[in-house]
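User: Last request for today: this protein with fe (ii) ion, please.
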Amino acid sequence: MFSVPALNYDYDALSDYISADIMQLHHDKHHQGYVDKLNAAVEKYPELQGRAVEELLVGLNSLPDDIRTTVRNNGGGHYNHCLFWVWMSPQGGGQPSGPLLEAILQRYETFETFQEEFAAKAISVFGSGWVWLQPNMDIITTPNQDSLLSSGEPAPLLGLDVWEHAYYLDYKNKRPEYIKAWWNVVNWPVVEARFDATN
Ligand SMILES: [Fe+2]
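Assistant: Here's the final one, the structure of the complex with fe (ii) ion:
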């Protein structure tokens, strides 16, 4: 059975940028909803039980027809959100350092240019979706809760949830303001460790 991991910080820990109301709803209701639907789907197939969510997403096309879309949406939602919670921290913000910063600068010349390109991609997502930084420094987007793993991409280094459930209570329709604020909570040491692990 899949479960929602506890946050490493209090619901109000990011409240200068993301309110406790959003964090609680997003974590306890939205993420829990994905997990509940994923568990209900996998329950029908004993042979799938015990598989990691990553395995299910990589092998999406070989899953039984009747649960493939459910796993795509809810397995993707579970995987994406597990990462999202640890990509944020009350001690976050600033810039990365070490090899990750070097790679960003090699590709984007300045950290600010990288942030601008990431934000532009995040703003460009029509409707609900995510924007990702990949190990090769590409910035790409996915719709809905689609996982990069299902399209043969490597696991992302960093990602931002641009579903309205992630920001609407605080920022209403102003997605660019949410993105700008979010940089202040990005947990760069986690992103650096993910980058180091790919090299
Ligand atoms: Fe979300």
